[in-house]
Write a structure and sequence with these properties.
With 233 residues, this protein is α/β, with parallel strands linked by helices. The protein folds into 2 domains: 156 residues, Rossmann fold; 65 residues. The chain contains 8 helices and 10 strands. The model has no long low-confidence stretch (mean pLDDT 91).
Length: 233
């Protein structure tokens, strides 16, 4: 199998400043990968590099078959269609209903047929347990329900990998656990997930590969190393 995400000796930028030097990371189909570290350690900058929001100027980098160092502006939307992104703050359009939020994404990524759009919206809402919420406005939903809608949005184009940036950061513990169980079920069905988090509880309860960002480096850690180093975060 080829990696869905590949970095080799990559320097990761935040703006014009390098925040991580020499990143080596391969994310394979079906992987569950955590990126952990303190605020400002470069976790989110890795995600932004994968989506081509941040430039990659040195080292190797690929995502879903696209070379991140040489990607052309016109190809970035096609790369992003292969990625599902889930944010801490949901980022739903507050002036339109759930179904219109999802339709907006589908039309922006090339869907045109009304019947297929409606069918796909129904499929993803059912997949996240929100089949009855299509006509709701975001403000009528709880935080957990909004995050489920955000995950449905991420699933619209059958992504090869979901990038989840602190997806439970604004949720109470019980609701956060429900969201984590949903993401784990998607992972068990074969979708790779890369999750940024600072919450040790998450990667202890739902084990996966762990990359620790610390001291301008980001390296995969085994269990014993995690025990030593995450205590400092």
């Amino acid at each position: 199998m080829e990696p869905l995400i590949h970095f080799k000796g990559a320097d990761i930028l935040n703006g014009e400043s390098v925040v991580i030097y020499g990143l080596d990371m391969d994310v394979m189909p079906g992987d569950l990968v955590y990126i952990v570290g303190k605020v400002g350690s470069g976790k989110t900058s890795i995600i932004r590099t994968v989506t081509a929001e941040n430039r990659l100027l040195s080292g190797e980098g690929e995502a879903c078959g696209y070379n991140l160092r040489g990607i052309k502006q016109k190809d970035i939307p096609y790369l992003r269609r292969k990625l599902g992104v889930v944010f801490q703050d949901f980022q739903l359009l507050t002036d339109r209903k759930v179904e219109d939020n999802l339709e907006f994404v589908l039309r922006a990524t090339g869907w045109t047929e009304r019947g297929k759009i409606d069918a796909r919206i129904s499929e993803v809402l059912e997949a996240v347990g929100m089949g009855t919420k299509a006509h709701k406005m975001p403000h009528q939903l709880s935080g957990g329900e909004q995050q489920r809608i955000a995950i449905a949005r991420a699933l619209l184009n059958n992504p090869e990998v979901i990038l989840a940036d602190e997806p439970t950061g604004n949720l109470d513990p019980e609701t956060a656990d429900e969201i984590l169980q949903l993401l784990q079920s998607l992972n068990r069905e074969g979708t790779a997930i890369v999750m940024v988090t600072h919450n040790r509880y998450i990667y202890e309860k739902y084990p996966g590969r762990v990359f620790t960002c610390q001291g301008e480096r980001c390296e995969e850690k085994k269990d014993s190393a995690i025990d030593v180093e995450i205590e400092e975060l």
